[in-house]
């Protein structure tokens, strides 16, 4: 084998390894280039990475619902939201709105989540308390069901209240799981959470 042929084999092998390691769209398997969008699998409540073409496809289908929903991009800083009546046992939580299964355009439900060392604990928030929170901060009524959330951090005297895409909430859950130590969380998790919130900026849809 000549030196040139050997060099080509090395380059081809390296290219295949890079392609195999590249992030791919989880619908069409196209290689993702840089920052990409997410789709929510509403049946599994899981996020899928999407290429630009698939993101545009499901953005067009958003009005009709379906199994996959494009996660929006907007972030909105809110004034303080009264969350105590919603039953939050800790200062860090997020709230996602939706519709009762089988109710079509009927009763709205609100699912609350708080991140912990084993993931996110979930419970159904009191609908009356949620309506009172919306009355105090009317912009909460603009939350897009399933794919946007109210994200709150009042731990350690902080006052962070945001409308965010749900992928931001998934990042918080992963961060807490990664940094948690011992029974109480240790000395790493809350500074990491504070840095996360300190990095949030308002963003258009």
Structure description:
A hairpin with a 6-residue loop joins strand 8 (148-153) and strand 9. The N and C termini lie far apart (56 Å). Helices cover 30% and strands 24% of the residues. The longest helix has 19 residues, at 3-21. The strands form two sheets. A six-stranded antiparallel beta sheet has the order 4-9-8-5-6-7, with helices on one face. It has a three-stranded antiparallel beta sheet with strand order 2-1-3. The chain folds into two domains: 3-70, no CATH class; 76-198, no CATH class. It is an alpha+beta fold. Residues 1-21 have low confidence and may be disordered. Helix 4 (166-179) packs antiparallel against helix 5. It has five helices and nine strands.
Main pleated-sheet profile: 6 strands, antiparallel
Distance between the termini: 56 Å
Subunit arrangement of the protein: single chain
What number of domains? 2
- Class from secondary-structure proportions: alpha+beta
User: What is the H/E string?
Assistant: HEEHEEEEEHEEHH
Give the strand order, joined by hyphens, for the main sheet.
4-9-8-5-6-7
**Helicity, as a percent range:** 25-40%
Rg, rounded, reads 21 Å
- Let me know the average pLDDT: 83
Instruction: Please report the number of helical segments.
Output: 5
**Low-pLDDT residue intervals, each spanning 5 or more residues:** 1-21
Question: Based on CA inertia axes, which overall geometry fits?
Answer: globular
**Beta strands, count:** 9
Beta content comes to 15-25%
